[in-house]
Amino acid sequence: MRPPFRWGRGRELSASWFAFFMNVPTLAFLGVVLAYPIGYAVYLSLHRVRLADLRRGVFAFAGWENYSRVLGDPLFWVAVKNTLIFTAVTVSSEIVLAVAIALLINQAGIWTSRITRSLILLPYAIPPIANGLIWTFLYSFQFGFLNRILLSTGLIHERINWAGNPDTALYAVAVPYVWRTLPFAIILVHAALQGIPRELYEQASVDGARAWHRFRHITLPMLRQILAVILVLRTAFAFSVFEEILAITQGGPGDATWVSAWYSYKITFAPPNNFGMGSASAFILALMVGLMAVVYMRTVYRRVTL
Amino acid sequence: MTIDRRSMNRRQMMTGAAGLGLAGAARPAFAQAAGPWGEAPKSKVDKLNFVVWTYGDIYTQISKRFQADWGVPVESTISSFNDHPTKLATMYAAGEKIDVSQSSPFSFPNFVNQGLAEPLDDLPGAKEYAADFTAFTKQVAMVDGKLMGLPYFATAWVWNYYSDMLEKLKIDKPFATYEELIEHCVKAKKDGVSRYPILWIAGVGLEQLPGTWYQMTWNKGGTFFDKQGNHMLGDGSIARETLKWWANTFEKGLDIADPESLKVQFTSGAKAFGAGKNLYRGPNHHYGLNICNDPAQSPIAGKVKVHGSPNGGKTIADAHVYFLCTANRNKEWAWKLLQYLGGKTKDGVYTQANTLAKDAMLGSGYQSVMNSNVIKTGWAPWGDVPAILDIWGKSTYIGEVCSSIYQPWHFPWTDQMNIEVQKCLTGQITADACCDNLIKGIAEAKRKV
Questions:
Q1: Closest CB from A140, A254, A271 relative to B423
Q2: CB within 8 Å: B258 and A141
Q3: Which residues neighbour B152 within 8 Å (Cβ) at sequence distance 6 or greater?
Q4: pLDDT truncated to tens, each residue of chain B (449 aa)?
Q5: What is the extent of the structural domain holding A258?
Q6: Nearest by Cα to A55 from B282, B202, B111, B289
Q7: pTM for the whole thing?
Q8: Which residue of B has its CA nearest to A254?
């Protein structure tokens, strides 16, 4: 039996109270940096807020008006659809690629994997907006490196307007996004791989299990937990993609790359600066992310932890 | 020290003028130096600031000049052109001090409407500035009869062509009609001289894609709204027919338009044209020539010529402005700083306007600057100045073509215009559907305000 915690001389504090006090600083910090802005955004979303109102701090109550305007705007739903496609494409690509690359760099016998391991973090260090600008040059229709390489290697016979074609633009944004964020997932998967006991593989090999079976029955189950974490985190981040959109397509061509965060940004910060409506759209986005997180936690994560 | 130096100069000048019998000739110069721009405000201020979008190092220069002249340091917040309204809005909303800022003609009605801009009428020298405004500048800077800003620069929409390519095609002069424009482009493509002979400036923005459509519609005799504010986008309207014609130059039609057209802005468009792959570029700001014809930036420098539009050369123009922000720390001093950006410096000279004309080929919002040698000599390295000024003379303010510019809902409607027109140009919807959607979008944009 655990001895009760002693607070000062002769005074005792139960374990639950101790846990509570230990969590207070974190709760206070999260309250200030997270809960307050979210609460304030909700407050703004229920008011008519223009630039001068925000400076004065006096707003007229609008009820659900901003929400009904957002939900009644066809462009908002286009943005939601694009966001869902973007999230599905990027998160699934990241998970598949992260596992594949982590397995490769986990091969201790291959000396180049050590170099790759150290270089793999580089894209993650590039600011998102710079990443977008670099890829803008790569995608340039007439002068971009991508078309030039593909043409010179004979993989394509005519230039492709990667970021300017409505059929390819969203994927053209997804590629640089995945390129930038993939290292994060690789590092997590790689760390999880390091924690899998070698003996399991050795025993499986003795039993005659081939590489695919070892991956299927040992590696993958042992990775599920970290994959669930990656799924939740990357979904939340992909839902709020913004910088690559700003740098590469600015929502175009047409509405092909209007995503939810871009919608909120335009409504809020472009004249006539409707902060109330912008806050409502951002809060709807936050609710969607929250909902996805709950779904993941109730399905993938729970199944894993059980 | 400064005052001593000025009085010395005056004395020397007056003595010299009297000696030479040139007092009459010297009077204008003397009058300039003696104006309100040369007088220090009575109040004190520790520092001033401005929030602007980037353009070379003009703001570093003007800040240094201001501090040297008045001993007041100037802080600057500089962002990109596209990010500027956001930067300004967030600073203003956050309660920060902003003495002077700037605006495109498209954002300005919103800034005025939301109370960001201070009226200038009663400030010393303001009436003299207004009297020297060009017609475009008046239409932007005067709001409901009040002076709300001073000009940053003005520009007219022109065409550019690559002269070597035209020679190679054995075409002796650029197009005089839209039919000829198509003929030249089709020939250039057929002869293998240019895969995509025409580079439109149709990237997402306020002046790029919409500006191109405004210009061609205006040139063909149309507008987007009538005098009563009713849209002019219905069946058979000139704007709609122009869009049909324009869309036909893209992939799903004649396929003569460079696909990069849908991404380029005014500056990036000029840089792309400088690569020498296209025959025509436009219609867009006249000062793109200072990129296309700059040897440091363009392999075809010197071979890009300016060209007017068909139908007698009708084109559009606009002016951007600086304004005194209501969030200023000291109105007298903020006005002083505003004049350094959009008016006269202490010596009574339009220093910034002259510098912009010489260094960046920008037009001025002041008639006296436009009529001066600064323009004639300053623009000469990049283009045919008389030709540009001739085009300038045939230009009309963009607000006459699309009067919604004066309305707060113009901005969200322009967002929709960018979307719908790009969809049309990429063949996703027809020009008719595009215009129908834009007509419906007017009401929707009004609801967003």
A1: A254
A2: yes
A3: B102, B319, B320, B321, B322, B341, B342, B356, B365
A4: 333 333 334 444 344 333 333 333 333 434 455 678 888 999 999 999 999 998 878 899 999 999 999 999 999 999 988 789 889 999 999 999 999 999 999 889 889 988 999 999 999 999 999 999 998 899 999 999 999 999 999 999 999 999 999 999 999 999 999 999 999 999 999 999 999 999 999 998 888 999 999 999 999 999 999 999 999 999 999 999 999 999 999 988 999 999 999 989 888 999 999 999 999 998 999 999 999 999 999 999 999 999 999 999 999 999 999 999 999 999 999 999 999 999 999 999 999 999 999 999 999 999 999 999 999 999 999 999 999 999 999 999 999 999 999 888 898 899 999 999 999 999 999 999 999 999 999 998 888 77
A5: 67-305
A6: B111
A7: 0.84
A8: B419
Which ipTM was obtained for this model?
0.80
Search chain A and give the residue with CA nearest B420: A254
Query: For chain A, how many structural domains are there in total?
Result: 1
Question: What residues of chain B lie within 8 A of the CB of A267, using their CB?
Answer: 448
Q: Which domains, and CATH codes, for chain B?
A: 2-8+35-153+319-378 (3.40.190.10), 155-317+394-448 (3.40.190.10)
Among B86, B428, B447, beta carbon nearest to A69: B447
H-assigned helices in chain A: 15-30, 36-45, 51-56, 65-71, 74-105, 111-119, 122-125, 128-139, 145-152, 169-194, 198-206, 211-214, 220-239, 243-244, 260-269, 275-296, 302-305
Task: Judge whether B52 and B102 are in contact, CB under 8 Å.
Answer: yes
Q: The domain that contains A212 carries what CATH number?
A: 1.10.3720.10
Residue A38 lies in a domain: no
The residue type at B47:
K
| A22 is a domain residue | no
A164 part of a folded domain? yes
Domain-embedded: residue A1 = no
